[in-house]
Amino acid sequence: MSAAFIITPERRAALHAIRDSIPGCERSSQKQRILTAIQQLGSVTTFECMRHLDCYDPRPRKLELVQDGHPIMLAWDRMATESGTLHRVGRYYLARDMATEVTA
Questions:
Q1: Which residue in 13, 30, 93, 94 has the fewest CB atoms around it within 10 Å?
Q2: Nearest to residue 90, comparing CAs of 27, 46, 53, 48?
């Protein structure tokens, strides 16, 4: 597990731009938002999916993306919530980006 992950204002703005550009609560919209975030930002956490991409439970969407053939991997991070409490959260990234993610 790496050091605590911080959402910068720039990252939050990028997540919101993705959310706003792919509207809807259907599973296809949620999957596309998660995949787009991974592709554009290198990775996305389950916390970010819930709070900023409007995907209440990203775990089934990740599974569906994997079943669709996307090589999405999981790593564990710690992230502070709004209360300042550190939580263990999953971080999704594409397998081909693993070397970049490990050193990031």
A1: 13
A2: 46
